[in-house]
Amino acid sequence: MELLAVYEDKDDAEAAKSKVTGALRLASDRDDNQVVYRLFATPTWANFYALEMYELPKLKHLVDQRKSGGTYDAAEHERLITGLGIVVNTYDLKIPDHWL
Predict the structure, then answer these.
(1) What global pTM score does this model have?
(2) Strands (E), 50-91
(3) Domain that includes residue 3, residue range
(4) pLDDT above 80 (res 37)
């Protein structure tokens, strides 16, 4: 498990916790006078997508458009894929070939 996200609102943290799969833990701690909630879970593309992180829903939309032959923004697709490089390096993940 690794830290995936930090929330300032308990309801938001609980909602996020319900979206991820696999081993997970929600920890709270006080930062000065504010409580923060840290979501620890397995870093997978499915979990990041469920949390709507790294613009993955937008990437899915673009990939679906490309597959269907619809209007497709190749520059935006490339920007999103390039941005995922940080995730790949941080969590030792591989970008699925069908996203490229």
Answers:
(1) 0.89
(2) none
(3) 1-50
(4) yes
